[in-house]
Amino acid sequence: MAVLHVSRSEAHFIKDFKRYGPPTFDGESERATAAEEWIRELEAFYAYLGCEDQFKVKGAVFMLRGEALNWWDSIAAAEDHANVTIPWARFKDLLYDYYYLETVKDMKEAEFLHLVQGTLSVAQYERKFTELSRFALELILNAAMKIKRFVKGLSKGIRGPVDLQRPASYAEAVRGALIMDKDVSNKAPSLPEVGSSSGVKRKFHPTYADPSLRAPQHQAQHRGMPPVCPTCQKRHAGQCWTGSKGCFRCGRERHFARECPMSAANTQRLGQRISPTVSTQGNNQRARVFALTRKEAADAETVVTGNPRNRAVRVFVVSFYTIRVSFDC
């Protein structure tokens, strides 16, 4: 391990330096910019303390830990930096060559080149702009270049007004963008407010993602329709005859649903086969036709008299179907 020769003045510097809690560096961070960030923090301490260049390297070495300290020991042994003063710029180059790869800097520079506000607020965009600008200092060599690139990345509704103001400084450009961002936010249409039981107004946020919110409309579309049968999963009223050997409409055997006498279509068709009207002695009224099964026809009497309205009912069979016709007497 390298041996540090510390003079009285150096010891005094390190004592003051350590008092302010400078950051350490162990070289194990997964952040690709960890070494660069550590150097920036150290230089902020040095600037505050008015540190001379001859103490900067020893102050940095004093804050190395773990893997980073092992790295420096190997460098110091190879180049005899333990006994020879190394310039601060040289120390940074050695550190960056090992912990801050050129590919990382290129990636950050490309990110800065393509940076736009997008969905960010102006404050968020400005923070990102400042963070990445240090990786592309050659692109913002002066204030005019920095202002131009910052304004170029602003959203369209903010960029135009800020550009028309011709800001003389970067701070003025940022301030103008922040004001415009606030104006745009205030002009954005607000959602209607609805009252609550507590009297506090709440924003109403309509949504159609929740199926329960669409339930009333869905139910309205099927209002007046038969319910869905749990047996056959079809819509119909009454008992379900699925799985039985009889007619699906009336449940009786020896005919199919399409031939069922209970069908409105079959009843109408049978009614058309019979004379639609029957003349009586005193009245000319339309006969009424009722469909019966064969069993009902067998059980019924041929003629029923004594009707309260003096009507006779004759039951007879037409083809397969049994028909009952009432006649006014």
TrEMBL record:
Q: Where is the CCHC-type domain?
A: 247-261
What keywords appear on the UniProt entry? Answer: Metal-binding, Zinc, Zinc-finger
User: Which ranges form a coiled coil?
Assistant: none
Statement: the UniProt record of this protein carries the keyword Aminoacyl-tRNA synthetase:
no
Q: Name one Pfam family in it.
A: zf-CCHC
Q: Name one GO molecular function term.
A: nucleic acid binding
What is the name of this protein?
Answer: Uncharacterized protein LOC111022144
Source species: Momordica charantia (Bitter gourd)
